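Q: Give me the 3D complex with flavin-adenine dinucleotide.
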Amino acid sequence: MTTTQVAVIGGGPGGYAAAFLAADLGMQVTLIDEAADPGGVCLYRGCMPSKALLHVAKVLTEAREAAAWGVDFGAPALDLDRLREWKDGVVDRLTGGLGQLSNRRGVTFLRGRAALGGPTTVRVTRPDQGLIDLQFEHAILATGSRPALPASLSLGGDRVWDSTRALELPSVPTSLLVVGGGYIGLELGSVYAALGSAVTVVEMTSELLPGADRDLTSVVARRLEDVCQEVLLETTVGSLVEEGDGVRVTLQGAGNVELDRHFDRVLVAVGRVPNSEIEGLDTTSVQRCARGFVTVDGQRRTDEPTIFAVGDLVGEPMLAHKASHEARIAVEAIAGHKGVFEPTAIPAVVFTDPEVAWCGLTETQAKANGQAVQVSRFPWAASGRAVTLDRPSGVTKLVIDPATEQILGVGIAGVGAGELIAEGVIAIEMGATVADLRLCIHPHPTLSETLMESAEVFFGQSTHVYRPKRVD
Ligand code: FAD
Ligand code: NAD
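A: Here is the predicted complex, encoded as structure tokens.
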């Protein structure tokens, strides 16, 4: 039996961040994953390949739009093999880099499938290299999640894709039905629309990105209506039947309206489920909730004192940066520190065109909680930078505590919103008031000024929007 101080199971952003920090703090660490290098879903089949393809989608869109600025590149010629090769190269470069970082820190990386053998042992089954039994002082479970594929949406074969298959770029279907108007449906739907597919999005609720503020999502919804064939809300899939090389689909809309359509391919993006059926978990006291998430305390310790869990495995939001932050907390707890996981602002970014991002309290949440807030909005049509980019559709908003004038939430819809939202995170986490934000000099001309000006709007003193403060 080999021994290790910390065994980390799963090499995604939760697992590798945990392994690297534990090694940095001087612990002896073993990181276990089935892939050749660390990276997990984020690097192999999530954040990174999708963002590489979204970058290409942006280039294609801008090349088309350039005609309006007097520059015509002609019709784009797509070489799908080279695009796939480039995207795979991005993934290889990033996962290879993580492999090197792991080695340089002295982390033992074991390629294989882990099964727990009790509160202090794990067995790793390695491809062609037999079994290794490890005894650990602490383990961190970071086995992540996988696409949900309800039986009613499965068909076998290659006509119905999940996100992993869609990211492999098997083809550019003439017509693509995207089931689910959430993060993946909108991001990958946008990619395929830019590559040339006629994309139809169906979303079962009455809004895209359910739960996000409507004044933000409406910016992307308007744009999607231009780039997609159709966006159907309050619609679900009734049945899927193979037809020719594609799929015949019945769609059930609001008011029992039934639509009958043919699509070449269907992409199902209706959420993800945690990989919590870890073999041997029942030999420990680790507990799971009804939805399958492993239950943890504020330090990410499970009901088994030697075992911690982080990332998608322990619940929403299923985001890479949330996984990595939890990983730091878990490792610090193992090292005897007192920190807990209690962020005020976990940023959410949907990398559509334009991007939508928010952090802290949303207006929707405030309404649901019955919490009084003041909302201050700056329209991007008044931003010089947005106009020079020919992207004046956008909005930056602050959700403010009326009593203290503290910034509780920030929302941004517009190009580059994913980068801009980090300023909101800092403002909220540092307890900034709307006056603090107004007084910070922002560089001109940039989109970041929309944050400062949304603070000025609150006082009725925005330079580029004439909206005097109401005196009641
Ligand atoms: P994962 O990244 O899921 O890693 C878990 C790892 O554990 C996997 O490698 C798995 O193979 C391994 N594993 C599981 N069981 C075992 C076992 N028994 N033994 C050994 N290894 C095992 N998030 C963002 O923040 N930004 C984005 O832009 C973004 N884009 C996304 C795009 C797509 C298409 C998808 C699908 C997801 C995206 N996400 C994004 C979500 C993000 O990928 C996840 O939140 C993140 O990867 C979760 O990290 P994790 O460490 O919990 O687990
Ligand atoms: P999601 O929860 O974001 O969206 C799923 C959508 O499908 C919801 O709007 C839901 O109402 C809808 N839906 C569910 N069942 C349906 C049905 N039968 N018919 C029609 N619509 C249906 O899930 P996702 O898009 O699969 O993404 C999973 C998770 O991965 C996300 O929640 C997010 O945590 C993560 N992710 C993050 C990013 C990012 O950070 N940019 C990108 C991709 C994925």
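A quick observation: Residues 151-270 form a domain with the FAD/NAD(P)-binding domain fold (CATH 3.50.50.60).
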